[in-house]
Please model this.
Amino acid sequence: MDNNDQEKSVMLSVLAGIGIGVLVGAVAGLLLAPKPGSETRENISQTLSDLGNKITDLSQQVATRVKSAVESGKQAVQEKIEKATGDEGEASA
Model:
């Protein structure tokens, strides 16, 4: 379980880093290259759209990893149950 917790922690750190990086980049871009209001609004809209797409992609990747981890966990539990029931059968024989 420690490995799963570590993977979750790493994934959350990556997501947080990407989010912070996008926000810092957007603010720096607005401050360093001022443009007319309509152009700035369009840039903000595009940046937010890109961020939404990145979040969607990352959440799909996280969901895939979680599904894989759940399936591995189910399989491990099933194997332990089978082993335990097999050991009980041998002990009673």
